[in-house]
């Protein structure tokens, strides 16, 4: 313990004085601290005191003389002006311990200090920490630590007690004062007490049970949580998945296939089926040994003769299938790429699915042989690719769901190259595909921009129009004209933002979603009003949607490990899902985002809230950033890998909760986005960004997997205490083989005779807060950056 006051210390040793003077003058910049962590309470009630400490590895001048520790302090300062409401003035940390063998140093306030007083008025997440190193009387101006920590792992001033089952406490406005008020309704209870709409609450997973407490008598529609065989018989379903993809009724005997949940004799299948497939290449069954650079095939899923009878691994929905057959007979592996688009070439309307199977229409193991929402071609169109050895194959063309928009005429764009896979990643529509062919061709009057792979007019003709419907256009008031110039600009002083798609200036209400402030007084009709994360007023009894990620029962069965070769021009690189190109080892998984609230969840609309979206030229659609975040920690809670999911099409993918208030049919899709209560939005592990890069971490050991939804708090919901789920996951060593099938998680455990998983220990270094809230978090990074100048704090409102 070191409690000397700096002004009582003897003069600084000459060696230190020289180094400090040079650091102040900017003559040397040394990293005196590294491998830091900042530990603080996860939640603090408004107006209550809290404490913190800072750990690091000392890499500065020698500290062999213990008295030198008394010269060191860390000045803890607010970064943003609004942080003045979190604490008053600058605070200091002094050295509390130092280990000379491993150079581990701990800074902490004096025991007599009240370190911080949480804001009484502005609640939210405070995620920027700024420490300046002080030696004796001197602050080292170019040696400070800027911690911009991650969402959901930061200090939060909140009324919440961190529990889910008792409901969300809110900071309610009563007269001119604000108080913390307990929830009026528990999240799993029906407002009217109906047992068929009430559920047991699972505090461990912070969610409601999938079946109501009223039991089997409450069954409104079929459910995987009751006896599946009985339900299948009751609904007269003989086989396959039902329409909502929540009930599986098995397979048919060998001489029959499953179509629309009925077992039918294969002799009744018509052309275009697995038993009577079309030829993919009309001239012969066998693909020429020298390949086929490019050809197209047209089909139509709306025709009555096509039935559902194949189950692609990336989408088991009962949708009509069209099957094509081809054979590979070559001295080298044959590269293949097939894209499926709407017949007019558009990519954003018809939600297509492609699957490459063996001769019996059983799925092939390589993840890239089943495609949904792929780039290229972009949007909701699909793509499969890879290398094939000799054999007979069948290509299945189908759709994500059987809504009319998906059952339309389509076009297949097919390429075969000996020992080469076409590389047209990054939404390239022209230029070289890397195999001697082209990614596409440009129209007359256009030239191909070789770097971007996009067609441009030659000479470039500015276009400041927007087509609102066929043959009807409006002028774009803002955005780009296609030739590098602006069509116009918006008035930022009036909070106007350009809606990229329409080129219209939209006036928006800017909101700091982490530290929200509601303007004006709440409407008198709202009882017990509080300010939501979208800076709008809500009432305590108002029913809301509630997003939560899937727990381990949803995630673990979907985990797969495989090697990929990442192109430096792929969308995954451009949009940050991959940090490096080349050969990378991925841990893939499904992402389920459930709505367990009592109301529909409606995502923002890009045309009305452009500040919450970013246009992705790579995928050719808008991205809503912060929809989901994936992290991997070692068992000591140190972050080792980070990922993230950008929401595009938020829809009812699968029903996961059952009860009288839960719809039995999906309502929302890509054209009408949202999630109903009891339904989940599913992002399969074959999609871009559905992974964590584990190339550079140690393998054959346990890690902690974390998934969070609504990480940026851009969406106001019933509870934020259930936004993250954590559980152990085993990471195996996978030999480098780009053509090997993905290694499934259950096989990883079985091969190693692993039958139990480790328990997650509390995070290290927890501190006891004055308000006795022991829910603490340790925010750590591999290394510390000693910044040369204070980083510009960027607003995350339009990240995608």
Averaging pLDDT over every residue, what do you get? 82
Number of helices, counting only DSSP H or I runs of 4 residues or more? 5
- Tally of discrete structural domains: 4
**N-end to C-end Cα span:** 47 Å
Proportion in helices: under 10%
Based on the structure, what is the oligomeric state of the protein chains? single chain
In terms of DSSP E residues, the strand content is 25-35%
Which sheet architecture does the biggest sheet show? 9 strands, antiparallel
Strand arrangement, largest sheet?
51-1-4-7-6-5-10-11-52
User: Structural class of the secondary elements?
Assistant: mainly beta
Q: Please give the number of β-strands.
A: 52
What is the molecular shape? globular
For the CA atoms, what is the radius of gyration?
29 Å
- Model regions low in confidence, pLDDT < 50 over at least 5 residues: 1-6, 764-800
InterPro entries: Lysyl_oxidase (IPR001695)
Pfam families: Lysyl_oxidase
GO molecular function: copper ion binding; oxidoreductase activity, acting on the CH-NH2 group of donors, oxygen as acceptor
